[in-house]
């Protein structure tokens, strides 16, 4: 087994002759190199798919960062203003100014908010900040040491950033200057995970800060993930009376996620899209597991990476002009990748000319000539889909019970997964819309039209295929608007339908020969009236105009543009990632299965030749000790005899050299290896030492 390979992750240090830095260089920070090399080889980095992946992720990540920065801006401004005002107070007392920032329940990535606050305070040079995390403050001594060190280190960093060209300075002089300047600016102490601190440490720390806040301008910021009751329950009266508390509220995590989805991931400016199932899977992880926006973004990044790393053919997932430029760079293997796409077969089957079919399947140059139109159709389809989704969101998003969904992301998933017009939820929405009054219906559809036209002007018009999208959608919107005008002008007068005109009259009922014939005629008329009622035949001009408008919306927008993914144009797989199985396998871990695989077949993860097995049940001495012990324990029952286990372990690791019958003499090194492996197996939870028999272990898994 390789010396630097372990079953568990670890750090291996290789000394390269470097020595400890002297005291004079202790205050200097090493800045990273200008161009950090990638972990991937040059043969990967130079490929077109990798360049497009880097460009797409850079744009998306920057867009998300800007959006989050704007969402934090209001709260950050209030916090910064609170800190600055505390520094402007002339009279100081022993009451510690404290801000409680409600970050949201189960939001593990809220540390980014405090990072943004720290950067804002540093940029304005209005305060020095020290962030104390609970893992570094197990005791009061550790908390005070981290506090002092953080404030002094912050001062050193500010001085270094202000003047990097200064001469070398003695560390003691730097510390004295930092300590002397502590009283010039506000000293902000941030506790991002308030609930994780020990109550005694927290109380003593607050009392110490309040006792020194007359001489040192301390300001305390608490990150509260639950509610203000946690603060009141943790701090008794003699501590809470020493703080002046003000509460700040941040944006809720679901609201922040909806902004990221609507303005970034569903933005028409990006060619990459997620399938409905993948999109729903990532949002479910967020809503039902962790509430982590950062985790959602990383999951999306993984999907983006998997999509582009499938080959250079997927480098066509970009702007139309860039995709046209990359068509000439495609190799024969790239063209075969396109031909293997599931949507390519229906495209070939709809060609009537046999020569064209053969050319598409065999001639790369001929297919390259067809690719520009295929790419244009795909990009235009997604632009029309996104614009029509804006109309549908406004139309059905506020209906009672929201059958199709209330949010744009819910409608996006429903429209991509299935033909939405055939679903009972859509029919229920249409029925609810038909029950609206004239004023309500006209106002709702007018809002839908205005919103869609505004979306076309703001988001679509500036894109490369924006004019083509507007040219297709604008006439359809005008047709719907004219139909709405007909609804406005329609009266409430009753209009007889042809079926109603041919309905039997009362005179027919009088011409009967007997009671039995009269009864049969009445039953027949009742059935006809019921049939007409079930067909929902409009009886007024308004009802007919309303029904016509709904039919136009369904035929022009929903059926034509909000088609499911399996009905999308050919080669749409180049723009849509739908491999949900890979995402589920790599994002949601199965620890027990992974542990069993790692211990039963270490070669699966380590990829070293010494651990390669012909059969997973095979036992060889080159396996890690923990793997050998684990595979031997699988052969035992509920109770495992430690001595027999040790003998079997020795037989495997020594290669059967101890068959001389002397089982009592065991090499101390082998016994030590066995003891350590058993302890690791117990730590992993597979066994426990038996209390009934001291020389036995109890197996805990089956």
What's this, in brief?
By secondary structure, the protein is an alpha/beta fold. It has 30 helices and ten strands.
Task: Note down, in words, how this protein is organized.
The chain is of the alpha/beta class and 702 residues long. Among the domains are: 90-251, Rossmann fold (3-Layer(aba) Sandwich); 591-658 and 665-699, Arc Repressor Mutant, subunit A, CATH 1.10.10. The protein has helices at residues 42-45, 48-88, 111-124, 140-162, 171-180, 199-212, 228-234, 237-240, 253-265, 276-290, 293-308, 320-327, 332-339, 344-349, 354-362, 364-396, 408-417, 424-434, 438-460, 466-489, 498-501, 506-510, 515-534, 541-561, 580-587, 591-600, 603-606, 625-633, 642-653, 668-683; strands spanning 96-102, 127-131, 186-191, 218-224, 243-249, 273-274, 576-577, 639-641, 687-689, 696-699. It has a five-stranded parallel beta sheet, with helices on both faces. A three-stranded antiparallel beta sheet has the order 8-10-9. Strand 3 (186-191), helix 6 and strand 4 form a beta-alpha-beta unit. Helix 19 (438-460) runs antiparallel to helix 20 (466-489). It is globular. Residues 1-37, 164-169 and 501-509 have low confidence and may be disordered. Belongs to the ORC3 family. InterPro entries: ORC3, ORC3_ins, ORC3_N, ORC_WH_C. Residues 327-579 form the Origin recognition complex subunit 3 insertion domain. One of its GO terms (molecular function) is DNA replication origin binding. It comes from Drosophila gunungcola (fruit fly).
